Amino acid sequence: MTQAQFFKVMVEKLHAQLAKKKSVQDSCAQDKSPQKKSNQNNSNDPPQIEQDASIACAEPLTEDSKEKPSPIVAQRHSQNKPSQKRSRYISEAVKRLVWRRDQGCCQFVDPGTRKKCQSRYQTQLDHLHPFRHLGENSPENLRLLCGKHNRDLD
What we know:
The protein is mainly alpha-helical and 154 residues long. It has helices at residues 3-31, 38-41, 63-67, 71-80, 92-101, 147-153, and strands at residues 123-127, 142-146.
């Protein structure tokens, strides 16, 4: 297929999609009719909602609506974001807890020999799941490593 043939096929498909969308919009416009006045006469009765195809018809998208998410989507995304700026600060209580749990020893395990380092020289706190990848400063995500193994793992 040549480039010209390809573009011709794509233009025909686009025209077919636009014609289909226009027919759906036209049917939506026809279905949207003013509600009957009989519903408004009885103020004691709750208004009746007519269920028709106009509910399922979507309004055409404008350029602005394509770029901006709906308020509901924006609200969901804002709930996922932390409300405070993340900090690398690790509280003294968490440091003490990790230090006691690991008994001040390096927790590195050699993959070949399966031996734990157990060094007590220059031990440092290390994140199992890195902070830069949204790792937390919780005791479950922290461990002690000697300086050599902490540098080698980064």
